[in-house]
Amino acid sequence: MNKIFLIGNGFDLAHGFKTKYSDFLLWYINKMMKSLLDSHSNIYEDDLVTINTGGYRVKEFDSLESFIEYFNKGPSTFSCKYAFLDKILKHTANSNWVDIEYEYYYELLSLYKTVAKHNMGKYDGAERHVKDVNVCLDLIKIKLTEYLHTIKIDSYNNQIENRFNSELEKISFNQVLFLVFNYTNTIELYLNSLKMNSYEVNYIHGRIGSIENPIIFGYGDEMDEYYSKIESLNLNEFLRNMKSFSYLKTTNYQSLSNFLNKSAYTISIMGHSCGLSDRVLLNSIFCHPNCSKIRIYYYQKSNNKNDYFEKTLEISRHFPITEKNRMRNIIIPFSDSTSLT
């Protein structure tokens, strides 16, 4: 029997690291504000935005909502060079949460529907609009990488170590795979203290600072009903940031497939939302005939509220209708589950 620990952003959040997209966007905003304050200039401009203070002294902000409110009042102005970034900022300010990768696919979907309305490929502006969205996403990725480099990965959590070892001590697994969807190396804080015979770490979405394993940032739901329609447009820009093609840049995906095919395995989910942006990959892991059990380490929101139920809903979307019964049998019930911390 083998073991997969599926590591997502909630794993980093459980260590107190500010790795939400909203944390990143607020950092980016305040980095610009600090530049204006330090330079005593009225104008700030980079590849994504332009700011004109109108001669007024700006400030750093404690939330994206307060930032949007400040610039809506004037006289200082803030403008995004790409409509996609403008949507992300406003959405995040309104909801305090955003999944940039999902918003990216939603934007592609909206553009596809425009193309379809104008008799498919005859809509002349489609490729130009998609190129703008892709350029914007690439620029955001650069800024995100810069932000993640500012986070100091040094917070060890004894309870998380206990979660690992409680499973590793019960069963002597032949091989253990840490499948890391994060861009950080937080998992490496634990590798030397865990009781394992053999293990492998697969940074399936890349690592910050790695030339050989660059970060993958995009969308990965080929099972969506519109994906095949988008693919049939024969406009390559629509597919440029689909994760399926980014996986071909390294051997990580093939290495994962080799692990899945070796023998039966159990999965422990630690901090992964299991959302649709990783559907192409999670479907291959959860629905593989060698997958025997799925354990959810849920997030305890308050004394009487957790996200176990939400996690099961997300997981279910990766199973086709013919596999729903099997899904209910391999997910470990809530009564036998526990929180990550």
Which helices and strands appear, and what pairs or packs with what?
Elements: E1 2-7, H1 9-13, H2 21-39, E2 43-45, E3 49-52, H3 64-73, E4 77-80, H4 83-95, H5 100-117, H6 126-148, H7 158-170, E5 176-180, E6 199-203, H8 227-231, H9 243-246, H10 252-262, E7 265-270, H11 279-286, E8 291-298, E9 300-302, E10 305-306, H12 308-316, H13 324-330, E11 338-339
Parallel strand pairs: 1-5, 1-7, 5-6, 7-8, 8-11
Antiparallel strand pairs: 2-3, 3-4, 9-10
Please tell me how large the radius of gyration is: 22 Å
Unreliable spans are none
Strand order of the largest sheet: 6-5-1-7-8-11
Largest sheet: 6 strands, parallel
In percent, how much strand structure appears in the residues?
5-15%
List the secondary-structure elements in sequence, H or E. EHHEEHEHHHHEEHHHEHEEEHHE
- For the termini, the CA-CA separation is 26 Å
**Quaternary structure classification:** single chain
Structural class, by secondary structure, is: alpha/beta
How many helices in DSSP terms?
Answer: 13
How many runs of DSSP E, i.e. beta strands? Answer: 11
Instruction: Summarize the amount of helix as a percent range.
Output: 40-55%
Shape: globular
Can you give the mean pLDDT? 93
Please give a structural write-up.
There is one protein chain. The protein has helices at residues 9-13, 21-39, 64-73, 83-95, 100-117, 126-148, 158-170, 227-231, 243-246, 252-262, 279-286, 308-316, 324-330, and strands at 2-7, 43-45, 49-52, 77-80, 176-180, 199-203, 265-270, 291-298, 300-302, 305-306, 338-339. The two termini are 26 Å apart. The protein is globular and about 65 Å long. Among the domains are: 2-19 and 151-213 and 250-339; 21-87, no CATH class. The longest helix is centred in the middle third of the chain and has 23 residues, at 126-148. Strands 6-5-1-7-8-11 form a 6-stranded parallel β-sheet. Strands 2-3-4 form a 3-stranded antiparallel β-sheet. Strands 9-10 form a two-stranded antiparallel ribbon. The protein is built from 13 helices and 11 strands. α2 packs across α6 (126-148) and α5 packs antiparallel against α6 (126-148).
